[in-house]
Amino acid sequence: MNLRFLFDRFSLALIATVVLASLWPVAGVAATWFSHLTTAGIALLFFLHGARLPREAVVAGLRHWPLHATVLAATFALFPLLGLAVQPLAGALLTPELYLGVLFLCALPSTVQSSIAFTSIARGNIAAAVVAASVSNLVGVFLTPLLAALLLATHGAMGSPWRAIIDILLLLLAPFVLGHLLRPWLARWVQRRARLLSLTDRGTILLVVYGAFSHAVIEGLWAQVPGRTLLGLVAVACALLALVMGLIWSATRRLGFSRADRITILFCGSKKSLATGVPMANILFAGQATLGMIVLPVMVFHQIQLMVCAVLAQRFAQQVPADDQAGGGSQ
C-alpha cells in the first residue's frame, strides 16, 4: 500500500496545522477576528455543499429506504452505544476530557466525499452512497446536538442543546439549503471549479482546527495529553472502528442486502465527518477549554478511518465476481 494513498495531503496539512497552533497559537484581538473569519468560512463551506448535491440523486436514492435506515441506525444508534460500551477501556487509557471527545465523535454524522469515493472504488452502490451520506449530514444537524447532550449529560460539558440546534440551523443548515436552492444557477460553475472548491472545503476545516487548537494550547493542552495518552486514544479509536465495521458487515449479511449495498452501508455507516464535526464542536463547545480535547479524537478517528477504508476499498475492488454468486461472501 502506497503511503501517499494512506496519508494524503490533507492529513499532512492537518498535522502541520496542529503543529503551527502549538508553536504559534492565535490569541487576544487576533483570535476574535480569526473567529469571525472561521464563522464565515463555515457558512461558505455548507453553502457549497448544498450547491453540489444533485436533486435527481436524492430522489432516486430515497427509494432505497432500507439501506438509508440501516446507515442512520449505525451512525446515530450503534456508534453511541459502542461509545458508552468502551468506557472501561477509555477510562483506563484516556483523560476524562478526551473521552468526552470520543462520545462527541459517536454522535457525529457520516462523511460525504470520502464515503462516496471509497464506495466507488469498491464497486458499491454509488447513487445510494450519495444520498445516504447527505441524509446523514442533514439528520445530524438535529440529532448530533441532542445525542451529544444526552451522552455528555453527566459530564456537564454542554449547555442547552436547543440553543445549539438553533445556532447550527443558522450557521450550517441555512447556507446549505440556500446553496441547494441556487443549484440550478450554480451547478455548472461548481462543476467547473471542483478543485478550487475542494481547496475551500479543506481550508475552512484547517482554519477551524487552528483556532480550536490555539485556544486549547493556551489552556495547556499538551501538558494534559502526553504521548502515552495519544497512543491510548489511537487504540480506543481503532477498537471503536473495528467493532462498528464488524457489526455492520455481519448485520447487513443477515439482513439480505446485496454485496454492492453492503459495501455502501459499510463505508457510509462506519465513518464520521471531520468536515461537519469540527464546525459543530466549535458551536457546541465555544469558548470552552475542552474544545481542543474534544476535536482531537475526531481528527485521530478521521485518519484511521481513511487508512482502513483505503485498504478495504482496494480489497473489495480486487475480489472476483464469484463472491456475488455466492451471496456476498464473508470478507
TrEMBL record:
The keyword Ribosomal protein does not apply. InterPro entries: Na+/solute_symporter_sf, Put_Na-Bile_cotransptr. It comes from the Bacteria. The keyword Membrane applies. It holds the Pfam family SBF_like. Keywords: Membrane, Transmembrane, Transmembrane helix. The chain crosses the membrane at residues 7-27, 33-53, 65-86, 98-119, 126-152, 164-182, 203-223, 229-251, 263-285. Gene3D superfamilies: 1.20.1530.20. GO terms for cellular component: plasma membrane. PANTHER family: SODIUM_BILE ACID COTRANSPORTER 7, SOLUTE CARRIER FAMILY 10 MEMBER 7. This is Bile acid:sodium symporter family protein.
